[in-house]
Amino acid sequence: MSVEPLLRITGLTKRYGPVTALDGLTVEVPRGLIGVVGANGAGKTTLFRILLGLARPTEGTVDVAGISVAADPVAVRSRLGYMPEHECLPLDQTAADVVATFGELSGLPARAARRRASEVLDLVGLDEARFRPIGGFSTGMRQRAKLAQALVGGPDLVLLDEPTAGLDPAGREEMLALVARLGLFGISVLMSTHLLDDVQQVCHHVLMLDAGRLVVSGPTDSLLERTGTVTVDVGHGAAAEHLAAELVRRGISAAVVDGRVEATVDGNDQLDRVRDAIADLGLPLYRMGSRLTSLDDVFLQRAGRP
After folding, report:
1. Which of 11, 63, 177, 235 is the most buried (most CB within 10 A)?
2. What are residue 35's phi and psi, to 5 degrees?
3. For 67-84, what is each residue's pLDDT tens digit?
4. What residue ranges do the domains of the chain occupy?
């Protein structure tokens, strides 16, 4: 029995005058945590606007969970949650009131909306702050409040537009952890971002766009390959520099990258020589493993970028 894809996009083109934002996009995307990646102007926001029924395609069709956006945009929108990139929540209202209001707009009775708002604010880590005005929130808290309003209606699919924008490293990790949790509740996610590391960390499937065209679509794991590079963590500073110099002396290409030694090896013999060098120098070995290609590498290769 075949499973209906989350998105079925056929020949999707959107032009704004002389500018082509999407160019003949054809792809099927499964349910789950999906990353939509590309630089600014790649067509990510235009795709979201079409899914939400806020823009009509110049050509082509889009189905969401088997429902045509063109034929029944209201039915599609009722199954979607949307977290925009820009500031969109009233700053003088409490998070509880704002999220409950969005719950009522999605069709929930007032009491059920208030209860559901409490649940999703707890989910995103704002339970204790729910009665505070949003204007007093930090950037990370405002992002989580936007995520809560996207979830309050119980959507099948949530569209997240640059959810980690403006966040510090700790806030970014917290937001990505929340995104990863959504899959546990059976909610599919379409996360638009230009940060490929974010997608590599949490998404099961990747949709790469460049200048409105499809670069590649596929499972994240299948796009990553093991390289001949071994990453060795013997501690930062002098220890890493010492090991890199010793490996070069022994005929192995090596350098210190972000505090770790990256050595290019060809077969088990050279791998044994890396191990022996660590032992001979009396260095601690915290971690050693084969490095994978990153999604940045995949994007540059498939898009034909230098």
Report:
1. 63
2. -100, 130
3. 999 999 889 988 999 999
4. 7-215, 226-303
Q: At which residue do the structure tokens 């009665």 appear?
A: 131
Q: Is the dihedral of CA 145, 199, 77, 59 positive or negative?
A: positive
CATH topology of domain 226-303: Alpha-Beta Plaits (3.30.70)
Q: What would the two tokens of residue 85 be?
A: 């990139």
Tokens of 9: 């996009």
Is the domain spanning 7-215 CATH 3.40.50.300? The answer is: yes
Global model pTM greater than 0.85:
no
| CB distance 36 to 209 below 8 Å | yes
Give 255-285 pLDDT, tens digit per residue: 998 888 888 887 778 888 898 999 999 999 8
**Tokens describing residue 275:** 């191990």
Tokens of 97: 């009131």
- Does the pLDDT value for residue 245 go beyond 60? yes
